[in-house]
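U., I forgot to send this yesterday:
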Amino acid sequence: MPECTADTGAIHKDLLALISEMDAELLAVEPVTRLPSLESLRASYRLTFTGGLTLKGRVLDTSERVNRISQLHPLLDDAVFPALRAARGHAVLEEWVPDAAPVNEEGARELCYRAGEILGSIHTTTVPERCGAEIRLAPDDSVQRLRDALRFLRDTNLLSVSAVRDLETHAQLNAPQTLDAGLVHLDFCAENMVESSAGLLVVDNELVDLGALDMDLARTWYRWPNLDRQAFMRGYELSRDLTPFLHHQTFWAVFVLVRAAAYRHRVGYDPGKMIESLQALSRGKPPQPWRHFHTRGFPSSRLKVGFCCDYLATGGQEQMCFNMVQALDKTLFEPRVYAFRGGAVATKIEALGVPVKLASMADPLSWQRGWTEQDAREKADYQRLLKEWVVQDGVDVLIAFACPEAVDAANASKVSALIEKLDGPYMLDRISDKSAFDVVVAESREIEDLVRSRASDFSTSDDRITRVYPGVDLEAFSPERFCASTERARLGFSAGDFVVGFVGRLSPEKNVGLLLDALASLPAEIAGRAIKLFIAGPDEGEKAALENKIAALQLNDRVVLQGEPDEVARVMSAFDVFTIVSLTEGLPTALLEAMAMGLPIVATNVGSIAEVLHGNGLLVRSNDALALAASLQALAADPGQCEMYALKGRRSARAFSLRSNIVHYERIILSTIRRRGTLAQLAVLGAHKTMNLEDE
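Result:
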């Protein structure tokens, strides 16, 4: 080894050992960072060697941390993360980035977009089993770590007893049920990035580990207060859906701020700013950078968004209404729902604290028994009442689910944006004159093409027609939430059964009887597994006929027929395959939910199903029981094919996240308001300067 001429007196012996193994002579040592703690070994140095070689040397607190870096750093992209040269004991040597400059955060939307791409890529990196790929995180562990940190802040008199109590309550109410685990960075922020001739590089990676992905996101939110979060989210969602994080952002805000404050106090830093933020958060006032996130209360000025439906009974259209109301950004939008008649979905919406107004309290499905004069009178009342409600409530935006009454209501009020949502070909002509609509939203390419082909007939134009696919709550519809064997037993199935499932309305167009015909033509067992059928859904006139057919085909011991399930995802977790056998469809919500649950699909080739069912299921001809039976038999006989379809389905479902869906609608609303809004509406937008979604 060449003789060292630099002053190395303050360098840890493990780093000196790595330096001694280099083929070049160490010329200079320049300290870069060091935490002000007598107990911490952590330090970093710029090391200059002969031959123009420059490396970064690090000393870490534990050899376990160094071993972890040795395992995980090779998984990082060399084009973004400086290469690791050596690691042993407490020390690490890595490449020094030449000609690097700190990133410029001023107006750096492109930087934030690229940063989102990088972190999303980290979080979706496949981790080999040798590195701990089977890591499982329990939400209760995160809650307990939070409690421990809160008690520390209380015992050191940094937070009052009441503030600790309020913060713990906030966290518990917003705690996630499951945690996505994977590769995490734990210090991903502008401070640790540089711009060089090679592009954006992340230069401090000593904390890379396996852990909760959403906790890592929250640390970035906290560590990067000037982050353009909309641009960052766009980049991140190229790899992973942000819905789980956004649903539980209050929990993660408390988690990272509490733990950061406790850590800074322990190592000698002043945690004053974080304590101030936590005190504000305990009072229900989210601090930077969570200032737009909802905890207790809302801003005084928001855009009022009305949703108009005919019915709020169970169905795909109604579920989409619920999903949109639930996911809409409540810091900027104030939703309310109007319907002719109610149903189960109305109750769910009211449980969110969103007002629901109904014109009639009659059975929403009574029309199936024949349209009466009383029904006609109540429908006329709905047209009158809807006008009154929209005016009284000061609605700014009206979204009509093919609801003709919405047009008159919008014309009679100060609504600045009228939007029609079309979720099936059969809905196109419900409103034949679409000239009043600022935007007509089709839920699939098939429907979009149909509307465009008849644009002149509908008195609209191409520039007013767009497509937004439905969204599914990927956190709620996650197979990891449930134990499949437990759910199968709950529904009356054994572990070895092959369970074919259907969840949906029991109505004529759903053609559920075809499943019974297919089952009757299949053997009782295939590949040693008993073939069973589970059917669940609200009765819309077909349940009695299905019960009679089950008895006539002698399928009582092979079929379970139930009413509407309390939780669709829980029921789906017991299935081996999901079926849709409709005679007509738009783009079924249940199809996307089943994909998210990792179920192979067998579906009739109707409506827009083929647009999303490619490589993750089988299409069959409509009303063909033998073709349906053949597809089910093929899946029952080939577990490998089922697994392949399940994996592809889950991946495909990411493109239909509820977050992506609602962001598209928010952009449509905002862009329309900016074109046509009143001064008061524009003032509301001005108070929310970060919400430039339509520019994304």
